[in-house]
TrEMBL record:
Alphabetical list of SUPFAM superfamilies matching this protein: FAD/NAD(P)-binding domain
The organism's place on the tree of life at top rank: Eukaryota
Cofactor entry: FAD
Recorded metabolic or biological pathway in which this protein acts: Secondary metabolite biosynthesis
Keywords: FAD, Flavoprotein, Monooxygenase, Oxidoreductase
One Pfam family here: FAD_binding_3
GO MF assignments: FAD binding; monooxygenase activity
Residue ranges of domain FAD-binding in the record: 120-353
Protein name as it appears in the record: FAD-binding domain-containing protein
Organism of derivation: Pestalotiopsis fici (strain W106-1 / CGMCC3.15140)
Length: 408
């Protein structure tokens, strides 16, 4: 008797969940995907992200009708500049610039999500409330009173994952650790010489670090206007602070004006070059949500085995200090699709074996990535230790003077 492929339930329609859905669709494996948000644009999904070492794999594992990924999602379009991240530390400009040897695509997240959602039927407003596993299947119940059953359930539901709570048998607040930074976040739109100055600091994003090594600012270009003359930027200022989990911490209640004032005051510790972006941010561009970086080292023995597994931030939430969280989520999705493709649902044994093998490898890789991300900003960094960005070591790079007219 020929084994039928399992029916897969995916909780979460973020990047990892959608890529898993596309990879299953290419393999003609049945799936359903559920998202707790009311619709695709219900909330801010994040900003641009760097994709490296995985672009060819992504294109190879999605159905042929999807267009080429690079022109569809590149955050620099229509500018012809290569992706670039620069780190300014100790008076040096250390950078990774896209090239044949260091290929990277920095993707606008909304464009990438739209690309990955091509021909994927997503069920919205589906908040998981309970999970039941049986010998021959798994059922998930939703807040709206509905339920659905399948052979495998995948938690792709992000850093506040309900599926993680089920697999670890503990609430997320006991798993997640807040990195010791108060984070101030702003967004602004630049054109003309102001836009050119930011592109000169780095085409895609940069990190400016204070002389004392205690304070830093990350600045990122999210996307460019269709005519190539306007850039949409975001930035976050990271201030050492071990008390941000306190309910009365200022990050929980500060107004936009207060956040901008604090950013300008803290910014005095940085070179003026790196704080121009703060001064160019209007009060209404300040984010008021209590933004923080959280991560977790979840060991493989902590996760129960069975028909339920997870990927991405649900499995290995990490801070963005090496720019690798998105790549690991997508690597998870592709590896899980391959594991599911090896399964039959005629009794469950191969499902349990293949899910266990995927989960063991994925969790080990995830813990290593979380540790490396933390290590990027640790206090005892050696002077000669390379800064890693997008999977590559940075190297000294000459300063630039970008003119928009040269790259349109």
């Amino acid at each position: 008797m020929v084994s039928k492929k399992p029916h897969v339930l995916i909780i979460g329609a973020g990047l990892g969940g959608l890529l898993l859905a596309q990879a299953l669709r290419k393999r003609q494996i049945n799936f359903e995907i559920f998202e707790r948000d009311a619709h695709a644009n219900a909330r801010q999904q994040g900003w641009a992200l760097g994709l490296h070492s995985i672009l060819n794999d992504i294109q190879a594992h999605v159905p042929d009708e999807l267009p080429p990924i690079e022109p569809s999602v590149n955050h620099l379009e229509p500018l012809k500049l290569p992706a670039q991240f620069a780190c300014y530390v100790n008076g040096l400009r250390l950078a990774v610039t896209g090239s044949p040897d260091t290929f990277v695509l920095r993707a606008n997240r909304n464009r990438l999500r739209h690309w990955l959602a091509t021909n994927i039927p997503i069920s919205y407003n589906k908040q998981a409330t309970s999970i039941e596993e049986a010998e021959y299947g798994v059922t998930v119940h939703f807040q709206d009173g509905t339920q659905v059953s399948g052979d495998i359930l995948v938690g792709a539901d992000g850093i506040n994952s309900y599926v993680r709570e089920y697999l670890l048998s503990r609430p997320n607040k006991e798993t997640l650790q807040t990195n010791p930074f108060a984070v101030i976040v702003g967004e602004t739109t630049l054109a003309g010489a102001e836009f050119e100055r930011q592109l000169s600091l780095s085409h895609s994003s940069y990190l400016g670090i204070s002389a004392s090594k205690t304070l830093s600012i990350f600045v990122g270009l999210d996307k460019v206007s269709d005519d190539g003359r306007t850039g949409y930027y975001y930035w976050y200022l990271m201030v050492p602070d071990e008390h941000t989990d306190n309910l009365d911490h200022w990050t929980k209640h500060a107004t936009r004006a207060e956040r901008l004032e604090k950013a300008l005051e803290y910014g005095k510790q940085l070179d003026d070059t790196f704080t121009e972006i703060i001064k160019l941010t209007p009060e209404e561009g300040m984010r008021t949500d209590a933004f923080s970086f959280r991560d977790a080292e979840i060991l493989e023995h902590e996760v129960r085995g069975g028909r339920v597994t997870m990927l991405g931030d649900a499995a290995h939430p990490m801070a963005p200090f090496r720019g690798e969280g998105g790549v690991h989520a997508m690597r998870d999705a592709l590896e899980l699709a391959e594991a599911i493709d090896r399964c039959g649902n005629d009794g469950g044994e191969t499902i349990l074996e293949n899910i266990a093998a995927y989960q063991e490898h994925m969790m080990r890789r995830g813990v290593e990535a979380v540790q490396k991300s933390r290590g990027q900003v640790r206090d005892d960094r050696r002077q000669d230790e390379p800064w890693m960005i997008w999977g590559y070591p940075t190297k000294p790079t000459p300063e630039e003077a970008v003119k928009l007219s040269d790259w349109l």
